[in-house]
Amino acid sequence: MRTQRAVLPAMRAQRNGCIINISSMAAWVAIPGVGMYCATKAALEAQSECLASEAYPYGIRVILIQPGSFRTPILQKALDTMPSDSTSPYVAPLRRVGMIFAQGAQACL
Question: What pTM was computed for the model?
Fold first, then answer.
């Protein structure tokens, strides 16, 4: 958002520009254990929609990309740090999510 704020005056002045935001399918599907990630991606989508309507009269386009799973170091770190403590009330849903992410990561190879 800081970058957007920095470039918008020049884009408005030239009446042309394109802002590309990278979100995630997690904005649409709430995933146990990563609620804050889902929430921030949903917020980015709402902000992008608002900015698109505000910037359109100035010839500025806003594009939102929503990729699915990608095999990245952050995904592997999340998988590696899944809690294994069987006394946690969240261990079962987190394990299910971990298996889904692991399967998605395998499909990305």
Answer: 0.73
